């Protein structure tokens, strides 16, 4: 699979993303990664969606400039919409995991006419009730950053490890860890803080896209209750649980996850 790196200019910074099959005929798919994950998480999914243009957004890339207007799900949603405008993507399918799923909800509720299908993975309408194991690891990372002004590798590795149930090969693991380590930790913390303060429950009714909610049974961050709120609040939503999968099932169950996404994006509307 050939990838084409691209950049969209924003008011004070830039947004980077990788494009696969830009000339394919299917509805474009925008992929939004989790915090402590990275755009590379989507490589297997993009490879499976062979008939569609895929846009894997690097949500960390605004940290290279003046990131203050982008530092939260709302700012990042505006950045993704700017990318869609620059690419002339009038209507897309959106797949978002964790914080990426929160950004996806903001987009789908703000401009419902521009989102045809939606896949929300390991996420919720709010972060309230996040499972204590993952919340503790994130809190430790934030504490290290506040005390040292920089990210500690051990704290980063602990956070990344919580996202999936497998042990990637050494090179893949290093790619994942470096994506976090090379990003301004103040930016990462600011986005996390804004996400924790946001409750999108009242906006779920504004989402008109046919929606699939996916949760891994071994997700250590989001509970079945988070999925239930999404499935109940979004009018055209259904929820499934992937046995044995973690918070980011595109990594630990890539083929099964890709099939679920492909089937949802290809299914005929009732």
From TrEMBL:
<dbReference type="Pfam" id="PF12697">
    <property type="entry name" value="Abhydrolase_6"/>
</dbReference>
<keyword id="KW-0378">Hydrolase</keyword>
<protein>
    <submittedName>
        <fullName>Alpha/beta fold hydrolase</fullName>
    </submittedName>
</protein>
<dbReference type="InterPro" id="IPR000073">
    <property type="entry name" value="AB_hydrolase_1"/>
</dbReference>
<dbReference type="GO" id="GO:0016787">
    <property type="term" value="F:hydrolase activity"/>
</dbReference>
<dbReference type="InterPro" id="IPR029058">
    <property type="entry name" value="AB_hydrolase_fold"/>
</dbReference>
<dbReference type="InterPro" id="IPR050228">
    <property type="entry name" value="Carboxylesterase_BioH"/>
</dbReference>
<feature type="domain" description="AB hydrolase-1">
    <location>
        <begin position="29"/>
        <end position="259"/>
    </location>
</feature>
């Amino acid at each position: 699979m050939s990838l084409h790196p691209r950049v969209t200019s924003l008011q004070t910074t830039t947004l980077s993303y990788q494009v696969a099959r830009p000339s394919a005929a299917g509805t474009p798919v925008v992929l939004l990664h989790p915090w402590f994950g990275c755009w590379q998480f989507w490589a297997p999914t993009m490879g499976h969606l062979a008939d569609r243009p895929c846009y894997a957004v690097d949500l960390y890339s605004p940290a290279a400039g003046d990131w203050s207007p982008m530092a939260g799900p709302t700012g990042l949603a505006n950045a993704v919409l700017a990318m869609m405008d620059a690419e002339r993507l009038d209507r897309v399918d959106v797949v978002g995991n964790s914080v990426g799923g929160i950004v996806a909800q903001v987009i789908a509720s703000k401009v419902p006419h521009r989102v045809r299908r939606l896949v929300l993975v390991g996420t919720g309408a709010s972060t309230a009730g996040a499972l204590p194991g993952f919340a503790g690891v994130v809190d430790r990372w934030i504490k290290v950053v506040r005390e040292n002004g920089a990210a500690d590798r051990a704290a980063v590795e602990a956070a990344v490890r919580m996202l999936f149930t497998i042990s990637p090969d050494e090179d893949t693991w290093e790619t994942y860890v470096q994506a976090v380590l090379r990003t301004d930790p103040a930016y990462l913390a600011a986005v996390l803080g804004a996400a924790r303060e946001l409750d999108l429950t009242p906006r779920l009714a504004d989402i008109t896209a046919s929606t699939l909610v996916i949760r891994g049974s071994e997700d250590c961050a989001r509970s079945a209750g988070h999925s239930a709120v999404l499935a109940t609040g979004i009018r055209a939503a259904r929820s499934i649980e992937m046995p044995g999968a973690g918070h980011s099932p595109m990594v630990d169950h890539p083929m099964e996850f890709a099939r679920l996404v492909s089937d949802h994006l290809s299914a005929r509307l009732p």
